[in-house]
Amino acid sequence: MKRQGIREKGFTLIELAIVLVIIGIILGAVLKGQDLIENARHKRFISKQKAWEVAMWTFFDRKGRFAGDDNKNGKIGDGNVKTDLTGANFINQPYEVATGSETNTITLGSYTFYVFFGTDGGNDAGKNIMVICMADDCNTAFDSTQIQYIEALDTSIDGSADGTKGQFRGVNAAGNVTLDEWEAYYSSSPNGDDWTAGTTKAAVYWFDAKK
Question: Helices H, strands E: what count in the chain?
Protein backbone atom coordinates (compact mmCIF):
# COMPACT_ATOMS: atom_id res chain seq x y z
CA MET A 1 0.00 0.00 0.00
CA LYS A 2 1.41 3.39 -0.96
CA ARG A 3 1.67 6.12 1.61
CA GLN A 4 -0.12 9.32 0.69
CA GLY A 5 1.94 12.34 -0.31
CA ILE A 6 5.21 10.45 -1.04
CA ARG A 7 6.55 10.09 -4.57
CA GLU A 8 8.79 7.13 -5.22
CA LYS A 9 11.48 8.04 -7.71
CA GLY A 10 14.74 6.35 -8.74
CA PHE A 11 17.82 7.73 -10.47
CA THR A 12 17.54 8.44 -14.17
CA LEU A 13 20.19 7.22 -16.62
CA ILE A 14 21.42 10.78 -17.05
CA GLU A 15 21.89 11.21 -13.31
CA LEU A 16 23.76 7.91 -13.06
CA ALA A 17 25.96 8.92 -15.99
CA ILE A 18 26.79 12.23 -14.32
CA VAL A 19 27.71 10.44 -11.07
CA LEU A 20 29.94 8.00 -12.94
CA VAL A 21 31.67 10.85 -14.77
CA ILE A 22 32.32 12.65 -11.48
CA ILE A 23 33.72 9.46 -9.93
CA GLY A 24 35.95 8.99 -12.98
CA ILE A 25 37.26 12.54 -12.70
CA ILE A 26 38.04 12.07 -9.00
CA LEU A 27 39.82 8.75 -9.62
CA GLY A 28 41.78 10.27 -12.48
CA ALA A 29 42.87 13.18 -10.30
CA VAL A 30 43.95 10.80 -7.53
CA LEU A 31 45.96 8.62 -9.92
CA LYS A 32 47.51 11.65 -11.59
CA GLY A 33 48.43 13.02 -8.18
CA GLN A 34 50.14 9.73 -7.31
CA ASP A 35 52.11 9.88 -10.54
CA LEU A 36 53.18 13.45 -9.81
CA ILE A 37 54.31 12.46 -6.32
CA GLU A 38 56.28 9.50 -7.66
CA ASN A 39 57.88 11.63 -10.38
CA ALA A 40 58.86 14.20 -7.75
CA ARG A 41 60.51 11.43 -5.73
CA HIS A 42 62.42 10.29 -8.81
CA LYS A 43 63.67 13.83 -9.39
CA ARG A 44 64.65 14.07 -5.73
CA PHE A 45 66.62 10.83 -6.06
CA ILE A 46 68.42 12.14 -9.15
CA SER A 47 69.20 15.40 -7.36
CA LYS A 48 70.68 13.56 -4.38
CA GLN A 49 72.81 11.37 -6.63
CA LYS A 50 74.10 14.45 -8.42
CA ALA A 51 75.03 15.95 -5.04
CA TRP A 52 77.39 13.01 -4.45
CA GLU A 53 78.92 13.43 -7.89
CA VAL A 54 79.34 17.18 -7.39
CA ALA A 55 80.97 16.59 -4.00
CA MET A 56 83.55 14.26 -5.55
CA TRP A 57 84.41 16.74 -8.30
CA THR A 58 84.48 19.65 -5.86
CA PHE A 59 86.94 17.70 -3.72
CA PHE A 60 89.03 17.09 -6.84
CA ASP A 61 89.07 20.81 -7.63
CA ARG A 62 90.18 21.65 -4.10
CA LYS A 63 92.77 18.93 -3.56
CA GLY A 64 93.91 17.93 -7.04
CA ARG A 65 92.79 14.35 -6.40
CA PHE A 66 89.60 12.38 -5.85
CA ALA A 67 88.45 11.49 -2.36
CA GLY A 68 89.95 8.10 -1.55
CA ASP A 69 92.96 8.61 -3.84
CA ASP A 70 95.82 9.26 -1.44
CA ASN A 71 98.65 8.61 -3.88
CA LYS A 72 97.13 10.99 -6.44
CA ASN A 73 97.31 8.56 -9.34
CA GLY A 74 93.73 9.35 -10.38
CA LYS A 75 92.32 6.07 -9.04
CA ILE A 76 90.00 5.80 -6.04
CA GLY A 77 90.82 3.03 -3.59
CA ASP A 78 94.09 3.53 -1.73
CA GLY A 79 92.65 6.12 0.68
CA ASN A 80 89.42 6.70 2.60
CA VAL A 81 86.49 8.25 0.75
CA LYS A 82 84.47 8.82 3.92
CA THR A 83 87.24 10.60 5.81
CA ASP A 84 88.04 12.80 2.83
CA LEU A 85 84.47 13.83 2.05
CA THR A 86 83.29 14.38 5.63
CA GLY A 87 86.44 16.36 6.36
CA ALA A 88 85.97 18.66 3.36
CA ASN A 89 83.47 20.91 5.19
CA PHE A 90 81.07 21.14 2.28
CA ILE A 91 78.29 23.70 2.73
CA ASN A 92 75.90 21.36 0.90
CA GLN A 93 77.17 17.96 1.94
CA PRO A 94 75.75 14.89 0.16
CA TYR A 95 75.93 12.50 3.11
CA GLU A 96 73.20 12.13 5.70
CA VAL A 97 72.87 12.14 9.51
CA ALA A 98 74.54 14.49 11.99
CA THR A 99 78.23 15.34 12.13
CA GLY A 100 80.23 12.43 13.48
CA SER A 101 77.64 9.88 12.36
CA GLU A 102 77.58 10.55 8.63
CA THR A 103 76.19 7.87 6.34
CA ASN A 104 76.70 7.25 2.63
CA THR A 105 72.98 7.08 2.02
CA ILE A 106 70.15 8.54 -0.03
CA THR A 107 66.89 8.26 1.89
CA LEU A 108 63.52 8.65 0.19
CA GLY A 109 60.57 7.75 2.38
CA SER A 110 60.95 4.13 3.43
CA TYR A 111 63.75 3.46 0.92
CA THR A 112 67.46 3.83 1.61
CA PHE A 113 70.10 3.62 -1.12
CA TYR A 114 73.84 3.34 -0.40
CA VAL A 115 76.47 5.24 -2.38
CA PHE A 116 80.05 4.02 -2.78
CA PHE A 117 83.07 5.05 -4.85
CA GLY A 118 85.87 2.86 -6.19
CA THR A 119 87.19 1.37 -9.42
CA ASP A 120 86.12 -1.31 -11.85
CA GLY A 121 89.45 -3.14 -11.85
CA GLY A 122 90.32 -3.66 -8.19
CA ASN A 123 91.61 -1.06 -5.75
CA ASP A 124 94.06 1.39 -7.28
CA ALA A 125 93.31 0.15 -10.81
CA GLY A 126 90.71 0.40 -13.57
CA LYS A 127 88.29 3.27 -14.10
CA ASN A 128 86.64 5.22 -11.30
CA ILE A 129 83.03 4.35 -10.54
CA MET A 130 80.14 5.35 -8.33
CA VAL A 131 78.14 2.37 -7.09
CA ILE A 132 74.54 2.63 -5.87
CA CYS A 133 73.10 -0.32 -3.93
CA MET A 134 70.03 -1.21 -1.93
CA ALA A 135 72.04 -2.74 0.95
CA ASP A 136 75.26 -1.70 2.69
CA ASP A 137 76.98 -4.84 1.35
CA CYS A 138 75.62 -4.45 -2.21
CA ASN A 139 74.28 -7.99 -2.03
CA THR A 140 70.51 -7.34 -2.01
CA ALA A 141 68.54 -6.97 -5.23
CA PHE A 142 66.40 -3.90 -5.94
CA ASP A 143 62.64 -4.37 -5.81
CA SER A 144 60.29 -3.14 -8.55
CA THR A 145 59.81 0.34 -7.05
CA GLN A 146 63.54 0.84 -6.47
CA ILE A 147 64.22 -0.21 -10.05
CA GLN A 148 61.97 2.66 -11.19
CA TYR A 149 64.20 5.11 -9.30
CA ILE A 150 67.31 3.58 -10.86
CA GLU A 151 65.80 3.67 -14.35
CA ALA A 152 64.90 7.34 -13.91
CA LEU A 153 68.52 8.04 -12.99
CA ASP A 154 69.77 6.01 -15.95
CA THR A 155 67.56 8.05 -18.28
CA SER A 156 68.94 11.30 -16.85
CA ILE A 157 72.52 10.10 -17.45
CA ASP A 158 72.35 8.06 -20.65
CA GLY A 159 69.09 9.24 -22.20
CA SER A 160 67.35 5.87 -21.85
CA ALA A 161 66.74 3.22 -19.20
CA ASP A 162 69.01 0.46 -20.48
CA GLY A 163 71.25 -1.22 -17.92
CA THR A 164 73.29 -3.02 -20.57
CA LYS A 165 75.04 0.00 -22.07
CA GLY A 166 76.15 3.56 -21.45
CA GLN A 167 77.90 5.06 -18.44
CA PHE A 168 75.25 3.81 -16.02
CA ARG A 169 74.76 0.03 -15.95
CA GLY A 170 73.09 -2.73 -13.99
CA VAL A 171 75.11 -5.37 -12.15
CA ASN A 172 73.74 -8.66 -10.84
CA ALA A 173 76.71 -9.51 -8.62
CA ALA A 174 77.85 -7.90 -5.37
CA GLY A 175 81.06 -5.90 -5.46
CA ASN A 176 83.80 -5.76 -2.85
CA VAL A 177 82.54 -3.29 -0.24
CA THR A 178 84.31 -1.45 2.58
CA LEU A 179 81.38 0.20 4.33
CA ASP A 180 83.31 2.27 6.87
CA GLU A 181 85.29 3.88 4.03
CA TRP A 182 82.36 4.25 1.58
CA GLU A 183 84.31 2.29 -1.01
CA ALA A 184 83.30 -0.48 -3.39
CA TYR A 185 85.11 -1.98 -6.34
CA TYR A 186 84.85 -4.78 -8.86
CA SER A 187 87.81 -7.01 -9.65
CA SER A 188 86.94 -6.69 -13.34
CA SER A 189 84.79 -4.26 -15.28
CA PRO A 190 81.09 -5.27 -15.26
CA ASN A 191 79.55 -5.68 -18.71
CA GLY A 192 76.10 -4.50 -17.65
CA ASP A 193 72.78 -6.30 -17.20
CA ASP A 194 69.17 -5.34 -17.77
CA TRP A 195 67.41 -3.54 -14.91
CA THR A 196 65.48 -6.42 -13.34
CA ALA A 197 63.64 -6.39 -10.01
CA GLY A 198 64.80 -9.21 -7.76
CA THR A 199 68.01 -9.67 -9.80
CA THR A 200 69.90 -6.37 -10.18
CA LYS A 201 72.01 -5.76 -7.08
CA ALA A 202 73.87 -2.58 -7.99
CA ALA A 203 73.98 0.33 -10.41
CA VAL A 204 77.48 1.23 -11.55
CA TYR A 205 78.21 4.70 -12.91
CA TRP A 206 81.48 5.54 -14.68
CA PHE A 207 81.30 9.18 -13.60
CA ASP A 208 84.65 10.45 -14.88
CA ALA A 209 85.19 8.39 -18.02
CA LYS A 210 83.11 6.69 -20.69
CA LYS A 211 82.63 2.96 -20.31
Answer: 3, 7
pLDDT exceeds 90 at position 99: no
**Which element (helix H / strand E) includes 59?**
helix 13-63
The contacts found for 99-103 with CB under 8 angstroms, 24 or more apart, are none
For residue 1, is pLDDT > 50? no
pTM for the full predicted model: 0.83
How far is the C-alpha of 171 from the C-alpha of 150, rounded, in Å? 12
Taking residues 183-190, report their average pLDDT. 91
User: What is the separation, in whole angstroms, between the first and last Cα of the chain?
Assistant: 85
Rounded Cα distance between 59 and 90, Å, is: 9
Q: State the alpha helices, DSSP H only, in 64-185.
A: 81-86, 144-158
204 Cα distance to chain centroid: 11
